[in-house]
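Entry 14. Structure prediction run on the chain below.
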Amino acid sequence: MIQLFKMAIRNLERNRRRTFLSVLAVSIGLALLLLIAAILNGEMGGALQNSIQIQSGDLQIRAASYDENKVSLDWKDLVANPQQVIDQLKTIPQVTVATPRLFATGILTLGDNSRGVQVIGIDPASPANQIFREGLLSGTFLTTDDREGILIGEPLANKLGVKVGDQISLLVNTSNGDVSTQLFSVRGIYTTNTSSYDEGTVFMPLVKAQTITGAQDHASTIFVMLQNRDQADAVAAALKSPDYQILTWRTMNDLIVQTEDFANAFLVFVYLIVLGITATVVTNTLIMAVFERTREIGVLSAIGMKGRRITTQFLTEGGLIAIGGVIGGLILGAIAVAYFSKFGISVASAKVTGILMRDTIYANLTLSDTIALTIVTFVVTIIASIYPAVLAAQMEPVEALHG
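Output returned:
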């Protein structure tokens, strides 16, 4: 075995440039696969996590007749006495946060500029709103008893030319079908680094939202976070009631889940293309080596070397190329992933609907993907060596000696 490796190394050193290019092809192929997997994980995983934190939660409890597409404020479509429901939820060990939220549609107006927005009434003290508190760029966060303050997103503030402390008119729909208008002060400007969400969402204290919309002691939904997201289905089953809709994060983010499944399926074809190109380079390298060493193979066969050993010799050379390529690929891939993990890829200009994708995608490479792609690349490189190895072993000694 040691002799085989020594001969394989010697043979590969005969044409160092070609060997280097073959190893480089495998390295670049693996590095590209790792980077693609990391970016996809960062994109889909980031979008899902982002959506859960700012919009869906792990669970939501709504009235049985509530339709989020209509943003109804009719009392029969809202959760009555939400605090009572929250007190019941707090008795469940898996529940870490439960907070009411009220949704309404409105129009912000400043001078001649106006924008349609979603108005969300929140409990400012709830830990569920920490992401908005941490994203505060200027001003102060809302307080429970604030009756004239709102938070607006940075993109919306830029479009309207609004800054902290400015007065702005807000028109909202009410539970009886009318509209209510009031001047509010911009208490703060926030960002979730998700422009599609920030440019159309305004926050105010829940009590004020209930008052201005006429919803009184009602909420559109109870936003729930769990200790473990995988417990969502079990908790939903335990809370099942004919009076409420119990929605899990998977149901509310079905589009993201389906998009991720489709992207993973499509990614298989991308992997096959990259690996196919890599395998072609390796196969070509070894075939050229076979033809260059035709006389040598004939001599080895003439003195008694069996075809199986010749096959093993070329497979060993392919294995060394694979090992070198995998090591180089892991190094190049680690560098590329580290760069995009730190600086990311800006997609702020891309208008994606239905998915709360952050403005910057950061690469996120998992250990399982690294191991799987490394093994696949190594195996494909070995498979690419089989044809040249068999070609060498099947040469007739007499014909090989004649070149």
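DSSP finds 14 helices and 14 strands in the chain.
Filed with the rest of this week's runs.
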